[in-house]
Amino acid sequence: MRKKISAAIIGLCLGGVSLLGTGSASSHGYTDSPTSRQEFCANGTVQDCGEIQWEPQSVEGPKGFPSHGPSDGTICAGGNSRFAELDDPRGGQWPATQVTAGQTYTFQWRLTARHATTDFTYYLTKPGYDPSRPLTRDDLDTTPFLTVPYGGRVPDATVTHQGTIPEGRSGKQLILAVWTIADTGNAFYACSDVQF
User: Fold this and answer.
1) Do residues 38 and 83 make contact, with C-beta atoms less than 8 angstroms apart?
2) pTM
3) Most buried in the list 15, 97, 156, 189, measured by CB within 10 Å?
4) CATH number of 31-195
C-alpha cells in the first residue's frame, strides 16, 4: 500500500513540474512611451480598468501577429479576457500622446521580467481609423513601421527604440507595439492612443 501511495505522490509531483514547465513566459512588460492603455490604467489616469490596473505588464497573448495572435477586437488585451477593458474603445476617449507625422520618436518599454526576444514591432492605424471601435487588423497597416530584431538576446529592464512616426495620418490614431518572445509561443501587446 505504501509503495502505491509513494508512486502516486511521485507521479503527481512530476505532473506538477511538467505543467509548470509549459506555462507562460516569466517575462512581462508594457510601453510607457507613448503611454499605453495599461499604463494609463495602472497610474490611475483612467478608472474602471479591472485587473489590468495591478498588472500592466501582463498583456500576454499568442505570438505571430498579424497572421496569428489575438483575434480582431481583442488585440489591445492580447486576446486575454481578464484585461478586456483595454479593448473597450471608451467612445474614443482614451488619453492620447501628442505626436507629429515624420518626427523621430523614442519608443520605450518597461520590462518587469526579461526574456529571450525575437523582436519588437510597431504598427500604426490607417488613415480613416475610427477610435470609437475596438481595434481590428483592418484598422492597422499590418506592415510594421519599425521592427527591432533581437535574435534571441535578453533585453535590459528598460528598452528604447528610435523610429520615425509615419506620414499621412491626422487626428486620433493608435500605435500597437508587440514584444515577441523567442522561446515561448507568446508575445506581449501594448496599445497606445496618439493624437496627430
Assistant:
1) yes
2) 0.86
3) 189
4) 2.70.50.50
